[in-house]
Automatic annotation (TrEMBL):
UniProt KW Amino-acid biosynthesis keyword: no
Keywords assigned by UniProt, alphabetized: Lipid-binding
GO molecular function, one term: lipid binding
Protein name from the UniProt record: DegV family protein
Family annotation (Gene3D superfamilies): 3.30.1180.10
Coiled-coil boundaries: none
Length: 108
């Protein structure tokens, strides 16, 4: 969760922070300047995984963006291996109303 001052500055600069989670810890990955760049980053992130078993995508309040992301991922992952859902209210409180999430399960 980021502080109010950092969130305010991010909104002024139109920054869409992308964070990762590993071993229960969050860390910054990228700070694209607009929604299109953020979407490109997420698609390229998935493309960077060599053996994909499945992909989960989630949205907080932006089902249209989730649909766009799913359409763009069809070239990378078969549609039947793309799972969609909504973030939980607890997660939504921390990430905000326009959040998108991507999780990739690598094949063994």
């Amino acid at each position: 969760r980021i502080g109010k001052a950092q969130a305010f500055l991010g909104s002024l600069l139109k920054v869409n922070p992308i964070v990762g989670v590993k071993d229960g810890e969050t860390f910054p990955i990228a700070r694209p300047r607009n929604r299109a760049q953020a979407m490109d980053f997420l698609v390229n992130f998935v493309k960077g995984v060599s053996r994909i078993e499945a992909v989960a995508i989630e949205d907080a309040t932006t089902p249209d963006d989730l649909q766009t992301l799913a359409e763009r991922l069809k070239d990378v992952v078969p549609p039947e291996r793309i799972y969609r859902s909504k973030v939980s209210p607890v997660i939504g409180t921390h990430v905000g109303p326009h959040a998108l999430a991507v999780a990739v399960l690598e094949a063994e």
